[in-house]
């Protein structure tokens, strides 16, 4: 269903300038050429316009902007829709290429009315972008951060996009934030990983069942969050349901890393496994999500030998024990922390 919106001439001009690559263009002209641009609806919802100040110039790349794709992702509003043009530079096994991509950003937590208007207006702007080959509708931050998803749109043969090496190997948008993992974090992991059969009762009670880790205030270190833990000795005493208690420890609007020592039953036996959890709620600020996502590898490298990893983005998913059961063996799991599934 068309919305009757008008696409401004400025939008069409931007597209035509990005589409045409002049081989003989001078250095100044090349620098001023646009690498990425966002478009939005005007306040009265009657026109599609270029969003002021939301663009990347080719001349910015390598100077004020080191990773243009990461910068582009950060430009997108976490709770509203946008259209965008992105001039992607990528490498295949044979050659280096450049292609223009039309992106429709429609995040899940955008208002329903906004989603409806942008969706119904999409054809109006697409018709003006004559000859564009690549179109990508993205609904989640996780999808747009992962360059492999864009690589698929570009033909699936891309080995590197912008500065990221080897798309096939999972480099999402950020390639490491340079954070340091505190020794205390590593000590906690090692203590939770080793289960001493001959440990005394007091030692067993003090053993950690669950722990949260966060970034320090200056965002330079991953540290153990003070007071955010469950001890084995608490279970059955001050805490009746450790999993429910753990879920309540998670901040609803901020990210965290966690270790959870899960006890569960399969049809054959009772088991215990250590799970690394990356809590990444949709309502967390975009900047926080980006920092935690880019710092995840730093803490994971310290958790050597851990087999189970779970990234969770909604309270509904983490409250449902069946989601965790899937990570632990699917239908073979019949109960988790004493609760039947």
How would you describe the overall organization of this protein?
- By secondary structure, this protein is of the alpha+beta class.
- It has two domains: 6-169, Severin; 180-340, Severin, CATH 3.40.20.
- Helices cover 32% and strands 30% of the residues.
- It contains twelve helices and 15 strands.
- Helix 10 (286-302) links the parallel strand 12 and strand 13.
- The longest helix is centred in the middle third of the chain and has 17 residues, at 112-128.
- It starts with 5 loop residues before the first strand and ends with a strand.
- The model is unreliable at 164-176 (pLDDT under 50).
Compact overview of the structure:
Residues 2-154, 176-328 form the ADF-H domain. The protein contains twelve helices and 15 strands.
Topology:
Blueprint: E1 6-7, H1 9-19, H2 27-32, E2 34-41, E3 47-57, H3 68-75, E4 82-91, E5 96-105, H4 112-128, E6 134-138, H5 141-145, H6 147-153, E7 160-161, E8 180-181, H7 183-193, H8 201-206, E9 208-215, E10 221-231, H9 242-249, E11 256-266, E12 270-279, H10 286-302, E13 308-312, H11 315-319, H12 321-328, E14 333-336, E15 339-340
Parallel strand pairs: 1-3, 5-6, 8-10, 12-13
Antiparallel strand pairs: 2-3, 2-4, 4-5, 4-7, 9-10, 9-11, 11-12, 11-14, 14-15
